[in-house]
Amino acid sequence: MKLPDFYIFEPLNVVKKKMGVARDVYGDLQVKVEAGRLTELELEKLTSTRGLDVFLGEVTVPDDGTLAYKDSRVLLYIRDVTAYGTRDMQPRYHVANCSTLRQMRQNDRFDRYVIAARSDGHFELNIVDGNRKRSMVLALAVCQNCLDHLHFGGFHMRLPKRERINHVKAFSLGEFFVKYPRSVHESRPKYRSDNAPDNTYSADFDDISRRVRTSVGWRCSQCGIDLSAPEHRKWLHVHHKNALRHDNCVQNLKVVCFGCHAEQTGHTHMKNHPHYVTFMSLRSRLAEPGQAEVPGDVEGERHFRSTGARSHRGAGAGVRRNAGPRDEV
């Protein structure tokens, strides 16, 4: 129930007048919400299309394998998604501690998620293209790994593909919350929507990227290919390991060529970009006898770790459609 605004609530002012209390005098009543309960603002955000930003580590897992935040079961999804060429990578939403989320935890990719408690399957997404973004509300599909984890409605990954797709289409959040009631009691969070940064590159990232790549001699830390020639430098990227583009700490950055970047977790979509074929052809030529050798690993990776390096959006990286002058030196 929503309380009235007592500053302008006339019945109260009438009583105050009878008691001889001035109209502009109020007590010091303070309402405290227990740490394990949702505040009114959190509940409002959870039931909106935008959701509430939290660390994945703040989402707990009840015994039934679902997801919880404070005293409520919640859904989890990635709000900031990449515009790749003409395609937007549309995420799935999660209802359980599935293999996808467990892998994300293992890979330290735990800060990207937003929690929600809507029952209509519509969520607000930020479509990010470089440092530009546009917001829209879209209907998302449930994660199949979540359904498999809960065996919801008899679903399992051994079913034929068409049957699995039909299960996803028929999935109802209303039915889900009937089987798994919203109310639980969980731990207090430490990250809120009002202090969670958008997943965009920092203003100085181009400088950081160039400095990091220079520190390793313009070599890929994974395959070792030498891309120091000015015309080749755009193919060397700096990858954010935890997928947070604003996190430029040394532990989170990894210098990789375009081909190796496409092999990183969550980046296989880069193989669909025309630049991928162009680069793989170049890498093959550079590895031919008489050209630069491509060792399996490089000493420069250790040097780079000590000097402060790891992730870049060079030509065709997951957030820019074409390489530009900011990608080259």
Helix tally?
10
Describe the largest sheet: 4 strands, mixed
What order do the helices and strands follow? HHEEEEEEHEEEHHHHEEHHH
Rg, Cα atoms, Å:
25 Å
Strand content: 5-15%
Helical content class:
25-40%
Q: Separation of termini? A: 60 Å
What is the total tally of β strands?
11
Number of domain units: 2
Which stretches are low in confidence, meaning pLDDT under 50 for 5 or more residues running? 185-191, 292-313, 316-329
Q: pLDDT average, as an integer? A: 78
Oligomeric state of the chains?
single chain
Strand order of the largest sheet: 6-5-8-9
Supply the helix-strand structural class. alpha+beta
Overall geometric form:
extended
Structural topology:
Layout (H helix, E strand, L loop, with lengths): L9 H10 L20 H7 L5 E2 L14 E2 L2 E2 L1 E4 L1 E5 L2 E2 L10 H8 L6 E4 L5 E8 L2 E8 L4 H7 L10 H10 L2 H7 L25 H11 L20 E5 L12 E5 H4 L12 H13 L13 H8 L22
Parallel strand pairs: 5-8
Antiparallel strand pairs: 1-7, 2-3, 4-7, 5-6, 8-9, 10-11
Descriptive labels:
329 residues, alpha+beta, 3-stranded antiparallel beta sheet, extended
Report on the architecture of this protein:
- The chain is of the alpha+beta class and 329 residues long.
- The chain has helices spanning 10-19, 40-46, 99-106, 144-150, 161-170, 173-179, 205-215, 258-261, 274-286, 300-307; strands spanning 52-53, 68-69, 72-73, 75-78, 80-84, 87-88, 113-116, 122-129, 132-139, 236-240, 253-257.
- It has a 4-stranded mixed sheet with strand order 6-5-8-9, with no helix packed on it. A 3-stranded antiparallel sheet has the order 1-7-4.
